[in-house]
């Protein structure tokens, strides 16, 4: 079956009630027929549900669909995207290991790598993600992990995933890609040679700004180690959130097509506006990595950035003039959202580190929603004309 069909048809096993839509399994634990069955399931001699910190039918259904979409052998769900990222690092690395990460990463991922895992003797070198030579030069004998985002949040920098995978080939290095902006509809990093793909399911996977969630998919041997860490430390996804996320995957393909169509149309409409220094979008010819975007991604995605002339003062004015667009730190919602990264998601970085990844004081991230494009264009053009 095609993925579009599987995203709709993969379901937890139907109960004796013959329900069509999967029920919510709001249960902390599961029962055993007798103590012998409990012993055998705990000993992993026979499969079975035990306790919802380990597994749950709603969570398993969500993970099965994600693995199908990402072409992954195995996967694991988490309470948030950050829990997925942290658990992957903590589950696979030990004191004395070395990580190389792109400097264009989600703000909290940078905090983990500089202030949390660093505290436990796991060192991290940050490099310019698109500079493959910089990755190569940073490799040491104890390098165990490559971590990147493509496209990056919020700078929309791309990394040639196949090139990075080729660089670590034959070495004992895990390549993990945060695929949050692209989703498996636009690109499947495992097919390009990555070992793990991570998501904040909070974003496009939910798609309506309702629940938090995270997921990691990839090589079974790595997922098993991360599972051991997660099983005993408890960053589990709630069954309710899993139910929402799994339902949302039924429409992911359709939604991503429309997000990308709207984002490209808006980027084209705002390009060259006198109040805007630059418009960045992977499928605009002016994007410095346009060729790579076309090669690596099916669509340009739902996010664009605008560098507003006049810095924060004008951004503040824009935020007051917009009528439809929400001002919020989320993305991937049906509602179009404007975010000012320098004062919110990336405010904990130094001005210097922000500048290195193109986060200027005038930069706004626009997560283009599913409203009628005519209304979005009108809202932005009206507001920008008044700046
Ligand atoms: C939002 C986001 C995260 C963090 O996910 P949460 O679900 O908020 O914990 C990680 N990576 C990227 C690229 C994100 O946009």
UniProtKB/TrEMBL annotation:
Q: Pathway of this protein?
A: Amino-acid biosynthesis; L-methionine biosynthesis via de novo pathway; L-homocysteine from O-succinyl-L-homoserine: step 1/1
InterPro entries named among the record's database cross-references? Cys/Met-Metab_PyrdxlP-dep_enz, Cys_met_metab_PP, O-succ-hSer_sulfhydrylase, PyrdxlP-dep_Trfase, PyrdxlP-dep_Trfase_major, PyrdxlP-dep_Trfase_small
Q: Which residues carry this modification: N6-(pyridoxal phosphate)lysine?
A: 203
Q: Name one Pfam family in it.
A: Cys_Met_Meta_PP
Q: Give a GO molecular function annotation for the protein.
A: transferase activity, transferring alkyl or aryl (other than methyl) groups
* BP-aspect Gene Ontology terms: 'de novo' L-methionine biosynthetic process; homocysteine biosynthetic process; transsulfuration
So what does this thing catalyse? Answer: O-succinyl-L-homoserine + hydrogen sulfide = L-homocysteine + succinate
Per the UniProt entry, the Enzyme Commission number(s) are: 2.5.1.-
Looking at the UniProt record for this protein, which Gene Ontology cellular component terms does it annotate, in alphabetical order? cytoplasm
The answer, when asked if Amino-acid biosynthesis is one of the entry's keywords, is yes
Q: What class of enzyme is it?
A: transferase
Record CDD domains: CGS_like
| Keyword tRNA-binding attached | no
* PANTHER family xrefs: CYSTATHIONINE GAMMA-LYASE (PTHR11808:SF80), TRANS-SULFURATION ENZYME FAMILY MEMBER (PTHR11808)
Per its record, how is this protein called by name? O-succinylhomoserine sulfhydrylase
Q: Which organism is it from?
A: Aquirufa nivalisilvae
Its taxonomic path starts at: Bacteria, Pseudomonadati, Bacteroidota, Cytophagia, Cytophagales
């Amino acid at each position: 079956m095609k993925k579009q069909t599987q995203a709709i048809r993969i379901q937890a096993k139907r109960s004796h009630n013959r329900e069509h839509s999967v029920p919510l399994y709001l249960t902390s634990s599961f029962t055993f027929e007798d103590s012998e069955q409990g012993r055998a399931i705990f000993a992993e001699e026979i499969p079975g549900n035990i306790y919802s910190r380990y597994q749950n039918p709603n969570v398993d259904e969500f993970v099965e669909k994600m693995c199908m979409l990402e072409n992954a052998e195995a996967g694991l769900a988490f309470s948030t995207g950050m829990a997925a990222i942290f658990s992957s690092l903590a589950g696979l690395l030990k004191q004395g290991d070395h990580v190389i990460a792109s400097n264009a990463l989600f703000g909290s991922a940078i905090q983990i790598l500089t202030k949390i895992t660093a505290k436990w003797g796991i060192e991290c070198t940050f490099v310019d993600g698109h500079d493959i030579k910089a990755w190569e030069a940073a490799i040491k004998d104890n390098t165990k992990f490559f971590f990147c985002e493509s496209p990056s949040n919020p700078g929309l920098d791309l990394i040639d995933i196949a090139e990075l995978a080729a660089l670590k080939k034959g070495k004992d290095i895990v390549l993990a890609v945060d695929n949050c902006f692209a989703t498996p509809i636009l690109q499947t990093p495992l097919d390009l040679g990555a070992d793990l793909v991570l998501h904040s399911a909070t974003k496009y996977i939910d798609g309506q700004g309702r629940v938090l969630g995270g997921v990691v998919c990839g090589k079974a041997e790595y997922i098993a180690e991360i599972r051991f860490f997660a099983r005993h430390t408890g960053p589990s996804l709630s069954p309710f959130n899993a139910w929402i996320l799994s339902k949302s995957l039924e429409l992911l393909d359709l939604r991503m097509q429309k997000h990308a169509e709207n984002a490209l149309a808006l980027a084209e409409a705002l390009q060259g506006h006198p109040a805007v220094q630059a418009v960045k979008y992977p499928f605009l010819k002016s994007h410095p990595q346009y060729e790579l975007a076309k090669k690596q991604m099916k669509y340009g995605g739902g996010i664009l950035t605008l560098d507003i002339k006049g810095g924060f003062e004008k951004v503040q004015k824009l935020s007051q003039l917009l009528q439809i667009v929400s001002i919020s730190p989320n993305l991937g919602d049906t509602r179009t959202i404007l975010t000012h990264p320098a004062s919110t998601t990336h405010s904990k970085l130094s001005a210097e580190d922000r500048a290195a990844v193109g986060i200027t004081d005038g930069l706004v991230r626009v997560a283009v929603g599913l409203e009628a494009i005519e209304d979005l264009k009108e809202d932005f053009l009206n507001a920008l004309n008044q700046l």
